[in-house]
Amino acid sequence: MDSNTSRAKRTPLQPLRSAGRQRVEELLAAASDLMAERGYEATTMAEIAARAGAKIGSLYRFFPNKEAVADALVQRHIAILEDEYAALAKRAATLSPEALADILIELLVTLHPRVKSLSALMEARTDKMEIRDRARGHAVAGIAAALRVCTPGLDEALAKDIAAVVLNTMKVLRGMLANDAPTTSGAPDELRRMNRLYLSDRLAPFRRGSDSATDGKTR
Q1: Gene3D superfamilies from the entry (predicted)?
Q2: Is 100 domain-assigned?
Q3: Angstrom distance (rounded) from CA 219 to CA 209
């Protein structure tokens, strides 16, 4: 039986001690790096253990197979997205639309190193559409929540529409910076400016007490 692809009967072990939790983090970080570099199918359990500086038995102690590793990574990535967008929503009340635009446009770039294997996992797994929908759903909901905190009068449906536009702009910026999208040296700054103008224009009619925003004036 192929240990990389078969589903074992036992579930992943949840470590109780800090040393065990640290080992799991190291193993997942190694798996994320490898899957981002080589893809899910090409990554083996032996390579994950080697990259983490662990014995193969230590990896199997926590994860019965590669699919269990992938499941844990998906859950981890989704949790990171939820935490980041929740933190942003808490800050949004003190931000101007322009400042919020700057933070949002950079967020996917700064998040990417922490969720780098998510794209590889989505491409390889049979439930990739479910994973993609979950990730996108969390992103749109998180951005929309921040927009509504920044602009309390904003309708929920419109907030989600604006959030979807902003999310795609975030993806374009990441593609530009990674040279995966057509770009020039000044294009990323132009995209940032476009995002500021867009959010400022769309949120202005709904702003209450916009002069009270305490940081992030337009550059």
Answers
A1: Tetracycline Repressor, domain 2 (1.10.357.10)
A2: yes
A3: 20
Are the CB atoms for 27 and 62 separated by under 8 Å?
Answer: yes
Q: What is the chain's pLDDT, residue by residue, as a tens digit (219 residues)?
A: 344 444 444 566 666 577 778 999 999 999 999 999 999 999 999 999 999 999 999 999 999 999 999 999 989 988 998 899 999 999 999 999 999 999 998 888 888 888 888 888 877 767 778 888 888 898 999 999 999 999 999 999 999 999 999 999 998 998 898 888 899 999 999 999 999 999 999 999 987 544 444 444 443
Whole-prediction pTM value? 0.77
Which secondary structure element, helix H or strand E, spans residue 127, and what is its range? Answer: none
CATH of the domain at 123: 1.10.357
Q: Are residues 78 and 40 in the same domain?
A: no
* Within-domain flag for 216: no
CB atoms inside a 10 Å sphere around CB 22: 11
Concatenated DSSP letters of 1-62? --TTT---SSPPP---SHHHHHHHHHHHHHHHHHHHHH-TTT--HHHHHHHHT--HHHHHHH
